[in-house]
Each structure stands twice: as C-alpha cells, then as structure tokens.
Write a structure and sequence with these properties.
5-stranded parallel sheet, about 25% helix
Length: about 400
Amino acid sequence: MARIDNMVLFVPYTVPGDIVDVQVVRIRKRWMEGFPVRYVRYSSRRIEPFCQHFGECGGCRWQNLPYEDQLKYKQKQVLDQFERIGKINVPEINTIIPSEHTREYRNKLEFTFSNKRWLTRDEMQKNEEITQRKAVGFHIPGRFDKVLDIRQCYLQPEPSNAIRNYIRDYAFRHNLDFFDLISQQGFLRTLIIRNSQKGEFMVVLSFFREDEALILPMLDELVHEFPAITSLFYVVNPKANDTLNGLELVLHHGNNHLYEQMGNLKFRIGPKSFYQTNAVQAHKLYAIVRDFANLKGNETVYDLYTGTGTIALFLAGQCTRVIGIEYVEEAIADARQNAELNSIRNVEFYTGDSKDILTPSFIEIHGKPDVVITDPPRSGMHADVVNSILHCNPDKIVYVSCNPVS
C-alpha cells in the first residue's frame, strides 16, 4: 500500500520499502490498483520467493517477505480493521501465534481444469506461438475464466503434486477435453485433493458428463500408480458452477472418508466435509477457543456453523452440553458420527441455516446458552443471527473469524 494524492494505491507483490514505478490499472473514488513495471530500489526486507509460480499465482502472495514480517503485518492488518472499520479502540492485542510449518501445511487443495490457461509474462515476452493452452491449477485473481497451470505447489505434502501432474499427463495422452469456463463445455472440470496427518489421501475428480468408458480406466490407473490414495471419488457435474452441493459422489476405491486426529479426539472427514485446512494450527485455535470460553462444567454451549462438529466436540468435556448448528447436511452427518466415534453423549447437532434455526422457540426448547461459539464463513453472520444472539444474551461470545472485516 502507498498513499498518492490522498488516495490509497494497492500494488501486489511489492513489499514495504520497495521503490517502484507503477502502472495504474483501476481507479475508484478513494483508492487505486496498479502493478509494478520497474523496481527502482528493492527493500532490504525482501527475500527470494521459493515458488516458481510466485507473481502469477494468486496464493502465497507474501512469499517475498520473511515469515516474521508476514506475521507482523498480518497482526497490524487485523488491528487496523478493528480500529478503522470497526471504530473500536483496542487497548491490547495478543501476539499472533505462528505456524510451525510454512510449507506443506494444508490438508485440502482444489484445482480447476481449463482449456484456456493463463499465459505467463515470460511466455508473452517470448512472442512465440502458443499451441498448448490446457491447464490444471488455480484461478487467476479477478479472472474466473483463466487458470494458471500449476506444476509444483508447496502448500500440500506429496504426492499431491505428483497426483495432479499425473492426471494432467494422462489427460494429454488420451486427448481428454479440459473444461471451457465460458462456453460451459468439456470433460474434466475440477480436482480436489485432501490428506490427513497420517498420510492418507482422498481424491475427488469432477467431470462435466457421464462417460464410464473414459472415467473408469483413468481412475483405475490412478489407484494403481498411487497407493497413498485411500479414498477415490468421482462426480458428474453438469451445473454452471463447481460446487458439489446437491451432487451424488461415486466412491470408486477405498474408504468414503479420512480420519484426522486432534489431541485425544478422532474426526471423520468426508469429501464434502469442512475441516480447518491447517490441522496443527486448528488444534491451537480450538485450545484458544476453549481458554476464552473458560468453561466451569455446568454451561450450555451453542456452537454456530459447527461444520463437522470439531469445536463442539473439543469443548464437550468441559460443559454440560453443546448444541451445534450447520447448514451442510453431510457435515452434520459427519459430526454425529464423530460424536459416536469419540463416545461423546452431551452434544446435539441440527441441520439448517443458523438464521432459520436460531429462533426464540428453538432457544426456549433447548435452553438459553451460557456461551455462544460462532465460526461463520467469510461473509460473516446474517443480521438475524446477530439479533438472535442478542436475544439469547449469553454470558460470553467467542467469535472465530476467517475475515475480521465482517
């Protein structure tokens, strides 16, 4: 960020202390966006990014800063949002808790197939004819129709890269169509790779149309090549979007779930289940939730947006009962199985949108919560949920946010 003529200028991939010439590409009332066209002087804090896709890929955009600097600016960002957007005077802020691992820490990645891959700056500058335009990788920020072909991603442990690259090579060898995101035509759509800390891998391949003659040989070869794949699904998705909601997944090989361990708890994770993508940090996060809740053993706890029940089950041993609410049916099914798996009897799970379920009659039936835990999506809580929490008037609210702005 820089300030030019009383306007904020956002310049991606630069770091504090860089002196750059910037080409402005977007102007709004109070802010501008641009990209660096020339570096006059590099910051002394700048380091060499370790990923070959840095600068093109939309992920890991702070790789050119030391991790300790990343933490400092992320903490500053949260504080700024509380003070500037929330207008809250924050007298004290706890120190950000670093991750033990800064590479290969994710347990889930989603990739998109496209027949119109994003051309890198190097490719454009060579001015050579581009004949191969297929890609499997990540969307370019702000360009849903363009996908950057990813050869090596450092976010997930192997064989994640090997699986994705093998599928791409197989598709090339057999001349399989990659999806066209504009015309909504093609064959291969998306790839989801999940893994557990035990080294198990779940793969979900999405196709635009049913064609077992093409699908099954591909899956068989994948299973033969990668013994680490303990769960392999495919799904036919003819919809205009890539979400798997409402679609039937077909189990081709192995188990229909993975297991993840968190402390003395075991969690069952299906292909549609939500689970925190950094399992080690999630354990630390839930421990902080537990500390903030400061349960004495006699409380009723409501866990909103409970997902697969991880927080609810994590807290169940310190209170009288927990009531979890989640709109994804498959996640609630997992949550109930996770409760059974861990022999936890003082939890109840309900399916539906929190704004529809958390009504005065529901609270009257199930009891006023002493503590409310809420972990909503990036968009935050619906106004009706906020009003319902105010109506409950709990002694304590612990808000887990993946977007401090909301």
